[in-house]
Design a protein that fits this description.
369 residues, 4-stranded mixed beta sheet, 2 domains, alpha+beta, HIT family, subunit A, binds zinc ion
Length: 369
């Protein structure tokens, strides 16, 4: 199965799933034709493997009619020539950065929050020197190498995040800052293409007041409108639809989904079935995220990635009005080779729509246990 077959697969869905498809998605097949001049024919054959495939290929455009997300899929783009920094062994490069690494001596060389540090078995917290938001800290693993982690370690990182959110909530109340609802956010940028400035692995946690970050809030508003219009849960229906297409599956307590409108390469969503959202689930979310990352590491040369976790407001987690039907949602994307000079985000991604070379059906095949 491939994304090229999506129009047929959508048509052949059983009645209910086809109803969901027509409600949520639209797919267009775009025929792309060009004429190769003789001066580049042999070069194209060498780089892309087939002249005819380049002269006449299909692009698949998927639009999510509920959220406005979209993606243009063209697998040929993964074969286009890239300018790279001189390629070298990533492990030895990471090792060089151990020299003078502040995160290898965090107690002495990183600031701490006003309420002190939180220590887990495999990590501890540090205040961020240059914060994004009023509350913004780091979770620094004891392991220096940013790509070496296992389920126990990532569970610990996520549990420490939950404890940090709790401490911020207590601290904000003690500072007389208890009137505003506080919204937590957890993220993990690994290596340079993902926006990380320090090689030593680290996660980041923020808390923002009054309303959630715009992208989280936008998704929540879309899901509320969906519930109002169709008396159904958006995330549940998204799961049912992706499952019918072979793009989603259940694993332990979670649902995993290879998204039809990825924001960037190989986007995967991880979320629990509907039910009360509590922060004590965060450790298990960490285990599920780790399993996906480790499977990607085993099967593809993933070197750089972003993970984000959408969470409901603090302390009101299970009861907050308008958040009851919104799951803890982890999103992750592959950000490619660390030696690429060309970034994977250009004007299209920033201002128009996502351009994707990885096929969601291949991603599902890679990740399904
Ligand atoms: Zn280090």
């Amino acid at each position: 199965m491939s994304i090229l077959e999506l129009p047929r697969l959508a048509e052949e869905l059983p009645f209910w799933e086809n109803t969901l498809w027509n409600r949520i998605y639209e797919v267009n097949v775009l025929q792309s034709k060009l004429r190769l001049v003789s001066g580049i024919r042999s070069w194209v054959e060498e780089k892309f493997g087939s002249v005819s495939e380049v002269e006449d290929h299909k692009i698949i455009r998927v639009t999510n009619l509920i959220t406005g997300e979209g993606a243009l899929f063209n697998s040929l783009r993964s074969k286009r020539p890239m300018t790279r920094f001189p390629s070298r062994d990533l492990d030895s490069l990471v090792e060089e950065h151990r020299q003078g690494c502040p995160f290898c001596s965090p107690e002495d060389r990183t600031p701490e929050d006003s309420f002190g540090r939180i220590r887990g078995k495999y990590c501890l917290t540090a205040a961020n020197l240059t914060k994004y938001d009023g509350y913004h800290s780091l979770i620094i693993p004891r392991e220096h190498h940013p790509l070496r982690f296992d389920e126990d370690m990532v569970e610990d990182y996520f549990q420490v995040a939950a404890r940090w959110f709790h401490e911020v909530n207590v601290y904000a109340a003690s500072e007389g800052d208890s009137t505003a609802t506080l919204y937590p956010f957890l993220m993990w940028n690994c290596l340079w293409p993902a926006g990380s400035s320090v090689v030593h692995g680290h996660l980041q946690v923020t808390v923002t007041p009054k309303r959630h970050y715009p992208k989280v809030e936008q998704l929540r508003q879309c899901s509320l409108r969906y519930a109002y219009n169709y008396s159904s849960n958006y995330f549940q229906d998204l799961y049912v639809l992706h499952k019918a297409l072979g793009l989603s599956w259940a694993e332990d307590e979670f649902r995993l989904l290879s998204l039809l409108t990825p924001i960037k390469e190989k986007e995967v969503w991880i979320f629990p079935p509907l039910g009360p959202v509590t922060f004590d689930k965060l450790g298990l979310v960490g285990r599920a995220v780790c399993r996906v990352l480790n499977r990607l590491k085993q099967q593809t040369p993933i070197q750089s990635f972003n993970v984000a976790v959408y969470l409901p407001p603090l302390e009101m987690e299970a009861d907050a009005v308008g958040w009851k039907e919104f799951p803890i949602l982890a999103r992750l994307v592959d950000r490619g080779n660390v030696f690429n000079r060309t970034t994977d985000f250009g004007a299209m991604e920033l201002f128009a729509t996502s351009v994707i070379s990885s096929d969601p059906f291949s991603v599902a095949r890679l990740l399904r246990p």
